[in-house]
Specification:
two-stranded antiparallel sheet; signal; Lytic murein transglycosylase
């Protein structure tokens, strides 16, 4: 039954219910979409009956201030000795499950443990938002209906298969379970790891870990390859070569004086140099698998912290924090984004978050002004602009 419903969802046209407007009318339209996508009519009616908007969801969607933290602040707030110890204990106690994840999907246990730790503290904090209501609230909202309306249809199909009780709770954005996956990913790539005939990411460690591994494999994770390695760079390094836009073979980086802090660099792979807080902070070599992690979370700071924590779980030493230049406060960061936009750069929203677009623009302007082009916004750059 699951395969047939998944096939129907994949071949049916995407939902196109009008966003905004009367919520009751919206529910009727989405119910009709669910039936057209293969959910039995009685199950669809039961799924949408009594659904409500949740204003807390919209409030959370509009205020994601955590991603304004610097890499050092964010990583030090998430990574503790206790969390590291727990991750290593889980790696041992659930060795059979992680061995299956590595054998079947090629995904390292360090990565899976890092996301499990950050997303739900190993399943202890999975979120208290009613998932059905959260998804419908976001699907009705006009900011990202194209993302969330298909998630509603997937949740309805999971409900029809018995994998989605209506009292399911999770994160405000509709992610479910120990590793926080959206319904469409669960429907298409969920794994029944414990063999009970259900895919329950909230209660089954095997289901959650193996589903997370299969999801990363789907997004392009390459088996038996690293994802991140801390490195040191010479003082004379050309900082304009740093950033995800520049990829070179590891042999080229070594020729430029890039040296690993822990073990050898992986030969034959392309990689980029990451400076999360500029040339005076930690430096990392990011391999192709690092980029796959952005399909799990699109925040540079979050992804880099998770990737780094995964290396720590697998034995890497703590990073060399260095002494980065102070970060700009929120007002100055917004002012910098406004000036970069005025100069023709695409930095996205003026939100004070140092995203990929802002980093690229900062590096370009640093190079133009003769400043060290390391992509880290400083007061000196703001003054120069």
């Amino acid at each position: 039954m699951r395969a047939a419903l998944v096939a129907l969802l994949l071949t049916s046209p995407a939902a196109a219910a009008p966003c905004g407007g009367d919520f009751g009318d919206f529910l009727k339209t989405m119910e009709a979409e669910a039936v057209a996508s293969g959910t039995p009519a009685d199950k669809a009616a039961a799924f949408f009956a009594g659904a409500q908007q949740d204003p807390r969801v919209l409030k959370a969607d509009r205020s994601q201030g955590v991603f304004r933290k610097t890499f050092l602040d964010f990583s030090q707030s998430l990574i503790s000795k206790q969390r590291l110890s727990t991750a290593r204990q889980k790696a041992e106690s659930l060795d059979d499950i992680f061995t299956r994840a590595e054998a079947d999907y090629g995904v390292s246990r360090g990565i899976l443990l890092a996301f499990w730790a950050f997303e739900t503290d190993f399943g202890q904090v999975q979120g208290d938002f009613n998932t059905r209501n959260a998804l419908l609230t976001l699907a009705h909202d006009c900011r990202r209906p194209d993302l969330f309306q298909p998630q509603v249809l997937a949740a309805a199909q999971l409900y029809a298969m018995g994998d989605f009780p209506l009292d399911t709770t999770g994160a405000w954005a509709g992610e479910i379970g120990m590793v926080q996956m959206l319904p469409k990913d669960i429907l298409e790539r969920g794994v029944d790891g414990d063999g009970d005939g259900l895919i329950l990411l909230k209660t089954s460690q095997a289901d959650a870990i193996l589903s997370g591994a299969r999801l990363l494999q789907h997004h392009g994770w390459r088996a038996n390859e690293p994802w991140l390695a801390e490195v040191t760079l010479p003082e004379t390094f050309d900082w304009s070569l740093t950033g995800l836009e520049t990829e070179r073979p590891t042999e080229d980086w070594q020729a430029l004086g890039v040296t690993p802090r822990n073990g050898p660099l992986a030969p034959g792979l392309s990689a980029s140099i990451l400076l999360p807080q500029g040339r005076k902070g930690p430096a990392f070599l990011a391999y192709p698998n690092y980029r796959v992690l952005f399909d799990w979370n699109q925040s540079f700071v979050y992804v880099t912290t998770a990737a780094y924590f995964a290396t720590r779980i697998e034995g890497a030493p703590p990073y060399a924090a260095g002494s980065p230049d102070p970060a700009l406060d929120l007002d100055r960061m917004k002012r910098l984004q406004e000036r970069l936009t005025a100069l023709g750069h695409d930095v996205g929203q003026i939100d004070g978050i140092l995203g990929a677009g802002t980093r690229r623009a900062v590096q370009t302007e640093q190079a133009r002004l003769g400043l060290p082009a390391d992509g880290w916004p400083t007061l000196a750059l703001l003054d120069a602009l």
